[in-house]
Write a structure and sequence with these properties.
alpha/beta, 232 residues, Orotidine 5'-phosphate decarboxylase, decarboxylase, EC 4.1.1.23, OMPdeCOase_dom, 8-stranded parallel beta barrel
């Protein structure tokens, strides 16, 4: 019997399309979603979505982190809505009118508001001048994003349980900053293991380098997927 793909979005942060398409085909038996980010999209444009979706038809998460005035974000969102991504990211800090503009421009896509990047810690927020700690800032941005029409939120696993309590069960919680126990954190600050993220209430775990940097990305994805089957 084939196992149900795990709730993981593999970040295809590759320098070239062949590598990204190879990673996508290696991981798609094991995961529900692949994520196209700025590196790939800015180099190859909209065609990259069909290339990584491939024959499997895996869900594509388009991570463009839009952040501009509402009219510009509405236009950009309309421009990519025809690619039918399951998720499209915008920065929550763009404010409610911008988030609403994106949500209205792509009714068939879950607009995911990025609250506080998982690469930032409390000291970074103080430096930026954003009222912290990160746990408070995430909750504040999560509430305003959902009120403005976002149907998904991006936060770290550290905040997932509190965000879930704040926004209820209908909102998709997406958590990057995921590292298997003992793996290097690299440029991530607010990290958790896959099991911790799922147990905290995340619906979709974004995982990049721990999978794509492994000698066999397919095997790495399968191993993490298996570890999640034991989490209730
Ligand atoms: O929106 C995202 O996906 C995102 C938000 C965030 O707060 N932190 C974050 O790391 N990401 C993305 O998640 C991925 C994490 O990759 P790894 O650090 O390699 O697992 C990258 O593609 C980031 O762009």
């Amino acid at each position: 019997m084939t196992a149900v793909p795990a709730p993981i979005a593999v970040a295809l942060d590759a320098p070239d399309l062949d590598t990204a398409a190879r990673w996508a085909s290696q991981v798609t038996p094991h995961v529900s979603t692949v994520k196209v980010g700025l590196e790939l999209y800015l180099r190859y444009g909209p065609d990259v979505v069909a290339s990584v979706r491939g024959a499997s038809g895996v869900q594509v998460f388009l991570d463009l982190k839009l952040h501009d005035i509402p009219a510009t974000v509405a236009g950009a969102t309309r421009a990519v809505a025809r690619l039918k991504p399951a998720y499209l990211t915008v920065h929550a800090a763009g404010g409610p009118a911008m988030i609403r503009a994106a949500a209205e421009a792509a009714p068939d896509t879950r607009v995911a508001a990025v609250t506080v990047l998982t690469s930032l810690d409390d000291a970074d927020l103080a430096g930026i001048g954003l009222a912290g700690p990160a746990s408070d800032a995430v909750l504040r941005l999560a509430a305003l994003s959902v009120e403005a029409g976002a149907r998904a939120l991006v936060c770290s696993a550290h905040e997932a349980a509190a965000v879930r309590a704040e926004v209820g069960p209908e909102i998709t919680l997406i958590t990057p900053g995921v590292r298997p126990a003992g793996a290097a954190t690299q440029d991530q600050a607010r990290v958790a293991t896959p099991e911790q993220a799922l147990a905290a209430g995340a619906d979709l775990l974004v995982i990049g380098r721990p999978i794509t940097g492994a000698p066999d990305p397919g095997a790495a994805a399968a191993s993490i997927a298996t570890s999640l089957r034991h989490v209730v």
